[in-house]
Description:
- The chain has two helices and 26 strands.
- The strands form two sheets. The chain has a 13-stranded parallel sheet, with no helix packed on it. A 13-stranded parallel sheet has the order 2-4-6-8-10-12-14-16-18-20-22-24-26, with no helix packed on it.
- The termini are far apart.
- It has helices at 70-73, 144-148, and strands at residues 6-8, 15-16, 30-32, 37-40, 54-56, 61-65, 79-81, 86-90, 103-105, 110-113, 127-129, 134-137, 157-159, 164-168, 182-184, 189-192, 206-208, 213-216, 230-232, 237-241, 254-256, 261-264, 278-280, 285-289, 302-304, 309-311.
Amino acid sequence: MAYLEELYLGNNNLSGSIAAELGKLSNFSILYLFENSLSGGIPQSLLNLSSLRHLALGQNMLGEVLPPNIGDALPNLRWFVLDYNMFGGHIPASIGNCSKIEDIMLSRNNFSGPVPGSFGKLSKFSLLYLEENMIEASNDESWDFLHAMGNCTLLQGVSLDDTQLQGGIPSSIGNMSVNLQYFSLARNRLTGTLPPNIGNLHGLIHLLLAGNDLAGTIEGRFEKMTHLQFLNLQANNFTGAIPPSIGNLTNLIQLILSENAFSSHMPTSFGNLQQLIIMDLSHNNLEGDIPSNLGDLGQLQHLDLSDNKLKGIIP
């Protein structure tokens, strides 16, 4: 099989280690071994495959530390998929030298340390999924990746759920790609207020910040996000009134603001959210009447207003 270029063995019951002999296939461009029971690490011989474009090893039992020069050895990578494994150590900065890379999916491993700032050099970068790792950011230097990725104008999705991010969200978030559609920092240890310029991300469809310690008002943050369909701010410390302008986000499907300290009245503008399926405003300090026009939300399937100070009649 000296001329083999593509190998698809995903979703089988393969076990053992990845064969080192694969590194002898000089024309190799695609290797799919996802959803098996492979163990061990990435053989050093695979770094000989400089033509490799797709490396998909997700959902195995692979581990060890990635070779620090993996990005230099595999400069033509476009898909780098290692999710649902047991890899550890730092994410190699050399991946930032893979100038053609589009998708990096390293979720559910044991990676630690910061996200490499070198990712900001990836002009074709589209997806970065790093959730459920031990990724860290606690000072300006370790948050630098967010500033650097402002150069990635094709970026569409960033997921950093369930990592070790802490401190305030830098204002550089507002410089990220206007093409960004999915952004999640849920279940970290984030504090402080939402930077006002987060509203520059007006292409967002999903914004998920649940399970942090973010505080302050959300006034003026979301007005420009007219494409937003999923907004989840659950389990933070946000205060003040819920801005009536959220009622102008008419593409919303899920609005989850529960377990905060929002006060004042429910905006009557929520009656404009005709696409809404889930609304959860429970466990806040809302008061006054429930807006009568909520009864006009024909798509609504789940409404939770429990544990507030609402009064009056049920619409």
